[in-house]
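Q: N-acetyltransferase domain-containing protein, please. Structure only.
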Amino acid sequence: MKPFVVIRKHENQDNAALQQLIREFVMSGAWEAFVSCLFREITLQLIVLGWALMFIFFGIPLYMCALAIPCVIVLIWFTVYGSYYNKSTELALRPNKLCWVAEIYEPLLAMDTKALSACIERCYTDRPGAEVQQELGKMRKKIIGTISCRNHLAMDNAGFITRLAVSPKYGLTPVTDHLILRVLQHATDSQLYAIETVTSECDQDVREIYLKIGFNIRQVYHKQIIGNTLKVMKSQLGIDLHEWNQNREQINVEVPVE
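A: Structure for N-acetyltransferase domain-containing protein:
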């Protein structure tokens, strides 16, 4: 009895589970962002500045000024953690009219969630298939992913993917693929001509999934966080839906079955 996924529209009773899921997904990237910040120029600048302040203004012996190093590391950790926590809370509470959830059906006694997610071979839209109705009594269901789509703010007749989140316990694939494909199918049915989204430098795995499905990198830019000292690289990804539908077989993707 293998697990399967149902991609369905968001319902009001899903709100609590979705908020927890989005927070877990966003916070799972905090450690990688913290490590990345440690090797930026601003870290060395803060250490030198702290060292100088302790020695010149407070008269602390030079060898004791080495305490500036752990102090800066702790400061960076709290700053990164705080910014990710605020981001996760904002995304979790942000309303979105057009939202889908990925609900996994798995055996009741399943323990290794990541191993089970790798065995997902079936994906249904809106409801489980008739051939698995007899299995539902022996399975449990849980929301493990979500994705939202809104109108593009800068382009007419185009959409923009937001709030993509997948439970870290289950891994990104193949649930992320199914969620993105569901949005692309909806956009095609709605006769949109393009879909775009943005990923940051810490979202490399998610960006690779977009590229595998058929998205192209439209532009790479840097978003300023603290002047010119601290910047975050962003990648704007986009896909032409007409071209994607024509080349779907060549890029080896399948839209979830009804």
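A: Brief note, in case it's useful. The first helix runs from residue 15 to 27.
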